[in-house]
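Quick one - inputs below.
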Amino acid sequence: MQQQISVVTLGIAEIARSKRFYAAGFGWQPVFENEEVVFYQMNGLMLGTWLQVSLEADMQQTANAPPCAASYGHNVPSEAEVDAVIGRLVKSGGRLLRAADAPPHGGYRGYVADPDEHVWEIAFNPAWPIDAEGRVTFGL
Amino acid sequence: MQQQISVVTLGIAEIARSKRFYAAGFGWQPVFENEEVVFYQMNGLMLGTWLQVSLEADMQQTANAPPCAASYGHNVPSEAEVDAVIGRLVKSGGRLLRAADAPPHGGYRGYVADPDEHVWEIAFNPAWPIDAEGRVTFGL
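Output:
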């Protein structure tokens, strides 16, 4: 059994508003887009941003409004880069939830909600190596 | 800017109940665990299952109850394996949301909620290659 997540799919209200956050904020390029979904090729998985009505129809489940009890982490190589990414995300339609500071377990992190209230943690975690292709390995 | 998700963190109510779903259901081995969090090493990122109260304190945000407008996909190499994984997840505390069938865009997929109502899509998608290390690439 592969320990593998193939795709993270976030329900969104509007393509353009969401794409501004991910493309202008994070600087990520879509690999595919149409009128209801945008996919981004990530580090061995896909990020999908899909109209919430379509996602709900597909999963046959009505969803509660985000923010929900989940977060998505994007790790970067320095504290300065954490602050820089958070700044770009907020300029691109994100909402600052927590300005970056040092958690008790080490490193440096802050939180930003995307325009649909999905929660991103932007972090510097020196214990978790990131390779050139963006693959992250656990470490203590 | 790396197109990279470092971690998916799911808020949970109880470690043992969640771990049964992920360890017995998916068959995934933790890489780290203590009394409030379990980490699983995935395909170039981490899956974290963290007590919801701790996650909320860290993100300084009260969360609405899942299910929320997000899903996590686990892709497998055949339709038969989709049904087998869904069966194991349901036996391990998951709740069937949609029995697997063929979506209009092709392939085969079903949905299961974990014990905390986080939504997993189990899918066979012949257009998205998966390598031996579990890394998934976009395709049409």
